[in-house]
Every structure is written in structure tokens, then in C-alpha cells.
Task: structure prediction
Amino acid sequence: MRLVLTEFVSLDGVSQGPGSPTEDTSDGFTRGGWLVPFLDEQFVRRTSDWLDRADGILLGRRTYEAFARDWPQITDPDDPYTARMNSLPKYVVSSTLTEGSWHPTTVVRDVDGVSKLKEEPGRELQVHGSARLGNSLLAAGLVDTLRLVVAPTVVGSGRRLLDHPIEAVGLKLVEQEVTPSGLVILEYDAVGAAAVAEYEGVTAFV
Result:
């Protein structure tokens, strides 16, 4: 399976608490809910299309426990995500959990376990949220595709997606889209080590 990391970020790189002021208040964070004002039909359609490609969901423990609490309680038959989120195989990376409550769930102990998961047949193994896990997987070279939804707002505080230090990662932009509300959707394929060069003047590029 291809490992696809899907993240919502602000212009200043914050990934914490996009969906609600109470979603993630760890470390005293009080500015959650910054993505919600910009949700629109095009965003819902695109994210639903992404979920259609998933053969598994991979989560860190904190995100898994929040999802396991909330998703089974959604009973709206018109919700575009719920049936698939609840029925897809879930994998949670944790050194403390022994089993999951959100079925079907498999506990994966570490990054090596994720590498073995990628060897299984299938389309996409999708990471949703779970920024700490995503950062570790990107640093380990396990992410094949990075999907970013960038909200037109500066949060000003909160946990950022791409914390340093990690190894430099090269990315190639393969898709881009702007929704009517101003969300910028960017899809990158990982291409190995990040390229570097020395500037030799504009004539070198024409």
C-alpha cells in the first residue's frame, strides 16, 4: 500500500485543533476550530474522493482515541464520511495500547510495524491528523504522498506539523486546487532527499 499523509494546516503551519475549540487543548491551546469557517462543498467532495481510495486508516494513539470516541456516535445517514471511517480497517501506532475499541483495529507497535504494513496489498494506507506520527513517518522515508489542506488564516500559536529537526525531504507537486472559500489543496509525492543548489544568477535559468 502507498502511505498517504493528509493534514490540515494554517498558513503558519499549525496543525493542532482544526475542527473545534475543544478538539485538542493540550499544552494550553485555545485557538482550535480555525479550519471550520472555510469548509465548503468542494472541500467535502475532494476529501470524500480521497477516502474512497483508502484500504486502511493509520493513526497515532491520541488521534485514534478521539476518533474512536466520536465517529461511532455520528448517526446522520447523509454524512459523507461516517460509514467508511467506521468500516475501514484501522491501525493505531502505540506502545501502550493492547487492543482498540473502534473495530476493526490492529495495534502497531512502531515505525517498523508501519513499514511492514506498507508491504501488504492494497491502494492507500491513509494517515489523518496524527501530526506527531506523520512527522515521524516523513522523517523515516515512509510517506509516499503528502496531502495538505491549507487554511487562509494565521493561528499564531499551537503545535506545528513539520517540527524540526528531521531529515530534509524532497517533494514534487503533483496536484493543486483552490476551493471557493480559499482553502488551498496541495498534493505532493515524496521523491527522496531534498535537492539543493547554489544561485548563479537569473541567466542560469533562461
Summary: The two ends are 40 Å apart (CA to CA). The mean pLDDT is 93.
